[in-house]
């Protein structure tokens, strides 16, 4: 064990806040030693296969599983009838319609029975000795249906003659959301010198996480307790959803365990219908039941992202000052309402469309519609990138039509440093930022001033060159309580216990850096416990770019509690009063003397002591819950430069600059990685990823043969820099960074593309702007 009685060593700061410490997880993961759900093998486990609907919309006439039950190796076939006593999955978001009535939710059973509502809807689960036996047996299931007409677009679902998915949800409408003073907004538009209007499609996305969904259900008959091994974004919240809503059991009767998670981006945040039949079968059969989806099933059944049809409008005065913005949208919910599905096109549009500009008035009107498609849920940013995208496209088109410079309009409307704290009409209060300075940094780094020279060079080669600016500001997830437990172990390690969950972000290193700096414990001795609901008393999970602000703050506060306990304990060991004890970089020191004890040694002494006075703590362990911090406002500016080949529609990236304000950066290496990933996902949505349904509701882009993802050779090198303005509303001064890459890249890429195409008469394109789409726009085909 390192001797923490040694004097302060400045080299220890290499693991402190602000240092680019490599991810602790990487050596294990790169050597194939990660433990994902499909790697878990329990004694006696059985295997499940899900029989899904091949139809988008149909009434079930009969379901015959008798032949499947008699197939080799089959132990059970679970249908809706077997699960009748359990609860359904619903959306409980406290959103209201414009008339004040509550949101209409769907009550989704784990397995469909009388009605099938999308291709991929689970109908039965076959459980057998092997996965192959379960899959083979599923092909023996006989399903007889009466086909019904399908609808796949939200706007079409709102039509008076659209097929209805539910008899008790008129017009397929679950929510008619309205925000803002419509009358005042209308007045502002009437008085405007210029009104810019754009119809914009926020295209649907398949999440395509590296790790397909997988789960193992267990039942402990002695304790009457269900155990679910599953990849998720937070075991505490998922445990509560399973216990409260689905299993209808006390929470202590449900345990959720999560190991490594191969990506999620919002998709694995909540319960899925497959989990209940696995748990039920495990109880019925007395053996664990394992299920791992294949990629085709994932395309069909993993919740999709985005999918909004938006009319965006911006009112400006003669100088280009913003008077009001208005969004009128159709939001596609898919066939069932997921836990957070209505949030993206409602509250997150409201909070984020303003970006980093002064905006006197905002109106958002969104109709959320059910369709015969895969349910939609959060996807990286969940309405935040889209809000910024709408605003940046409006600015570019307003500038073009008004004969003004788009950059100058941005400068004119930026919130100035002397306006903070800035109370937005959305209810947000921005605590600080240097928006115009960041814009100037980005333009300078991108050599924006000399773009026309480069454009002329491209034109001489027969290419179309464009440069695009993407300003952004996003509101992080709402405040939540978060656990920050600290436990000193017998083996000399220190465990951080957190309710957030790392599914690719690298929490272990960042959290360890915070603890190392606050307590001076050896960085290499710090471990992270995050995937066991039994260890938690609170936990908001990971999502909305809030983990460091929540867990980091919890660790800061828990560290202070450790120090307070340590002062009392050290006073006892060093035979002095607690008031005489000072804490200096991992050492409790008697003030004015050289008498001291290291924090690790003190923890060991307390462990080994069998008779301590009542006022002396028996350990330095702390179980602490951070109450909550307000939302933060990461922001920045991306500048993208690209070239289009008019003969093929192919896009080549030439330069990409991003200047970001993420507040205090704990680990620059991890932040750069998060920015890279978000930018690439934005590029994917902008240029590559297209979800396509047939008129009958069949998913046409159901594999990687049909669905495009950006590859390494499609991407530019990224030039990243930071302009840190510490957040004032959380102890670390952090602002979050996980989703900002998408928020900047969507507008930067699409603005650059449109700028490249303006000389050939193209002023707007919707995502995804694939080579075919671009070629057709150029050639007016």
From TrEMBL:
Residue spans crossing the bilayer: none
Pfam family, one: MoCoBD_2
InterPro entries, per the entry: Ald_Oxase/Xan_DH_a/b (IPR000674), Ald_Oxase/Xan_DH_a/b_sf (IPR036856), Ald_Oxase/xanthine_DH-like (IPR016208), AldOxase/xan_DH_MoCoBD1 (IPR008274), AldOxase/xan_DH_MoCoBD2 (IPR046867), AldOxase/xan_DH_Mopterin-bd_sf (IPR037165)
Family matches, as SMART domains: Ald_Xan_dh_C
SUPFAM superfamilies (UniProt xref): CO dehydrogenase molybdoprotein N-domain-like, Molybdenum cofactor-binding domain
UniProt entry tagged with the keyword Oxidoreductase: yes
PANTHER family: ALDEHYDE OXIDASE 1-RELATED, XANTHINE DEHYDROGENASE
Name of the protein in question: Carbon-monoxide dehydrogenase large subunit
